[in-house]
Amino acid sequence: MALPKANRLKHRDDFSAVFRKGIRRSSANLTLRALRKSADSDRDKHYPAKESEVPSRIGISVSQKVSKRAVIRNRIKRLLRAAFRHLLPRLKKGWCLVVVVKPEAQRCEYQQFLQELEQLLAEAEVLNGHS
Q1: By C-alpha distance, which of 111, 122, 61 is closest to 82?
Q2: What family is it from (predicted)?
Q3: In 20, 30, 31, 129, which residue has its Cα 20 to 30 A from 84's Cα atom?
Q4: Angle between the 70-87 and 110-123 helix axes, to the nearest 10 degrees?
Q5: Domain CATH code at residue 86
């Protein structure tokens, strides 16, 4: 099951902005890039939204360095999307997030991804209750 449409980061220029201007937090298997989008800067051609409720958007990047096999890369993306769905109600509004997967992540299971994501989001102060 996919993330809700409002929570997907899809366009190349949005990914580029997060990589260029965002903060970076790393763990053993994942790297989180996070960029706070203000209500004014979020008014763009890709994601028009009301000022008060700009949803956080999430992108996942799994390169062929992780695995040459698409089956493995897709499995990792499915697990990360499931972990994000679990954490979505706790995310603060207005963030653009990109998770970059490291090659060591091939051997990870859902619980480990969930734990690492929660830790990275707390470090980046993206989770409600962590500031």
Answers
A1: 111
A2: Belongs to the RnpA family.
A3: 20
A4: 60
A5: 3.30.230.10
Domain count, the chain: 1
Q: How far apart are alpha carbons 97 and 99 in whole angstroms?
A: 7
Summarize pLDDT for 1-27 with one digit per residue, the tens.
789 999 999 999 999 999 999 999 999
Could you tell me if residue 3 is inside a domain?
no
CA distance 56 to 6: 8
Instruction: Extract the runs of DSSP E, i.e. beta strands, from the chain.
Output: 23-26, 30-36, 57-61, 95-101
Output the six-digit token pair for 34: 């996070």
70 assigned to some structural domain: yes
Domain presence at residue 1 = no
